[in-house]
Amino acid sequence: MTKSIDIACTLGVADLGTQARRWHRLMARALTERSETADGLRLTFRPEAEDELRALVAVETGCPFTVLGLREVVYTQGRHGILNLLLAVARALAGEDVREALENSDGPSVAAAVAGLSERAVKGVRGLVSRCGVDLDPLPTAQLSKLGLLA
User: Fold this and answer.
1) pLDDT per position as a tens digit, 105-130
2) Closest Cα to residue 49, out of 21, 27, 30?
3) Which of 29, 90, 93, 129 is spaced 20 to 30 Å from 3 by Cα?
4) pTM of the predicted model over 0.85
5) Which range of residues forms the domain containing residue 133?
């Protein structure tokens, strides 16, 4: 079992630019395959790129990210829900599988799992998800109320 450690992201605008350039150089030199998968994107590199890959990933570990464009509260018809995303981040931080959290369309069970997150898990999610937004229309409060997440 690996021990988890808290890492603060200290990348500023200039650092992000440097990091992007490093990724582009590595891909130009050592990328052998780029393919889309059901879970996202898979990049395959030559074996000699392992040390540089580890260095790039280490710099970005623990850095917050922004999610925009979610239209659903819970996974519906192939579209991720905002609650699914929050639950998946919590599970990823705990070293658990995220697939079920992302694909669960049972609103009450997803809502219960999110509501049941520990204070530590909530702090972890808040530390990584710097901004989580939906489309131009506000998140349907009626859906959240129906799931018992709003009074």
Assistant:
1) 999 999 999 999 999 999 888 888 87
2) 30
3) 129
4) no
5) 65-146
